[in-house]
UniProtKB/TrEMBL annotation, chain A:
PANTHER family: DIPEPTIDE TRANSPORT ATP-BINDING PROTEIN DPPD (PTHR43297:SF2), OLIGOPEPTIDE TRANSPORT ATP-BINDING PROTEIN APPD (PTHR43297). Signal peptide: none annotated. GO terms for molecular function: ATP binding; ATP hydrolysis activity. InterPro entries: AAA+_ATPase, ABC_Ni/Peptide_Import, ABC_transporter-like_ATP-bd, ABC_transporter-like_CS, Oligopep_ABC_C, P-loop_NTPase. This is ABC transporter ATP-binding protein.
TrEMBL record, chain B:
It comes from Paracoccus caeni. Coiled coil: none annotated. Residues 95-304 form the ABC transmembrane type-1 domain. It holds the Pfam family BPD_transp_1. Belongs to the binding-protein-dependent transport system permease family. This is ABC transporter permease. It is a multi-pass membrane protein. The lineage of its organism: Bacteria, Pseudomonadati, Pseudomonadota, Alphaproteobacteria, Rhodobacterales. It is found in: Cell membrane.
Amino acid sequence: MQTPDDTILSVEGLRVGFGRGAATVTALRDVSFTLGRGKTLALVGESGSGKSVTSLALMGLLPPSGRILSGRLNFRRSDGTVVDLAGLDAAGYRAMRGPGISMIFQEPMSSLNPLFTVGDQIGEMLLLHENVSSAQRDKRVIEMLELVEIPGAAARAKSYPHELSGGMRQRVMIAMGLICNPALLIADEPTTALDVTIQAQILDLMRRLQKELDMSILFITHDMGVVAEMADQVAVMYAGAVVEQAGVLDLFDHTRHPYTQGLLASIPRDDLVDGERLVPIPGSVPSLTALPSGCAFAPRCSHAQPECHRPVSLEEKASGHLSACIFDFAGAA
Amino acid sequence: MRSYLLRRLIGMIVVIFLVLTIAFVLVRLAPGDPASLMLGPDASPEEVAALRVRLGLDQPIIAQFGSFLANALRGDLGQSLFFNQPVTTVLASRAEPTIVLALFSLLVALVIATPIGIWAAYRRGSVLDQTSITTAMLAASVPSFLTGLVFQRYLATDLGWFPASGYGGAGAGFTERMRHLILPAITLGITNSALILRFTRASMLDILGEDYVRTARAKGMTERRVVLRHALKNAGIPIITVVGLTFALLVSGAVVTERVFNLPGMGNLVVNAVLRRDYPVIQGTLIVVAALYVLVNLITDLLYLAVDKRVKY
């Protein structure tokens, strides 16, 4: 399939399984989304919906028991050529990580190696991917630390992770992720473990760096507030599949999939009138080993009809707005 | 750091003092009079009385303890009854085979255990993991005297690659002496590799599941670099502990191995001293081994400090 020039990443029908043979559990059943160049796509969903597995699959970092069963992960490199990440070998993936795709993780406290200085760990990226002298490396590391607004960058480069706060460590992770100028940054709940004030600072920083460095961001989160603040596009995941993708305003204003509607209705808001109650989605996420046939959300859906047991796939319901529901509930929340 | 070293030093002095006290009390706890005990049932009362005076046993117990401590501090651990030489001289002449053997066998154990431990952890659950663990356990659970005897029979006697026993005899050169330590070192190394292997594997398994190992992979480095640089350094801390303890254990005398290979080391010395009721030598060995333990422990703790900057003393 052709990928439009302004698309940096297009995931088509990604299926990921864990385990072998008959015991294989399909964690991702059908993940499809596209991310435009210089844009931010938020991948949202409940715990266990497959957001993190999707990001690990993109990075080629699935645990040994997991593997990509099918699907295409078309990624446009900075030289304009398109490569299917699913077809890369180990060496190809290594070269891709860093300069092509970088990732920052949820836990800044444990994601840095405790035994190396932060300068060492950031500089290692250059050591791995760029042929620069060690003096050049040190200089770039300090510049990068300044870019992520770490005060006293030169001194901080010699610090060990335990000497920094959680927010500072996440800045270090961002510096490490960005030093090789990646085309795509995957951020897996980068602010979930941080205080609210720090969270806002980190989000600000990421937005600023995105503009300065012209990169695309795949932002994984379960926080709709963060989605509204960060995303251009949103893909909603449920039980290992993307059920709706749209522009962020379109998604909030014209929600089409009943699951997304339920998700939005269950968020605490400050415009709730006294006495008005949040509406939780009834039931719970189905087990991946016992998914219903057809739409996986049907058992919890108030609009469910007998037809919902037929297979369903992501379809464009309006321009740029895709939904995996056989009905179209545009705007009906 | 300086205050930590000072605290450790004081702690070491306390431990050594306690060991000296125990060594002192131990000989006097043995039923009967130490002098007649040392000389055995055939000694005449005159001989016993003479030894009592020589050992200072006619003095009040506090005075005895005082002079024992004072002597020990001056490095005088008494006179061996059997060799008729100062205990320190006897111990010094036996130290080389024991300490070199401890170092050699530790090296052998590390060479066997760390690569297999790392590889087994990396390929956990694989056939290689299970085979290597089982083989290592098998090798370690065979008593060292049997391994030693088998090596002597095949590698020394039949093939003639190594000397079968002894330490080269009087006046043997350094190379010749070391040649005699090869088989004992392999024997002891195999036995001690199992514990280190288990520790290495368990420790690596823990570390390989850490978030920062995933970060390392996400940076696009080879698996070799992930494992040997980012994981192994972290896994090293528990490994240092077990290596330190193993070394201390080895230094305190690989009695059986020294026996099998007839090495004139401290293990052999202490067994003979027990059989000969050479109490000053037993006492002296106890003190020297305790001091070595304390020293090895200190070195281990200082190594932590060098590896892990989070450790603050």
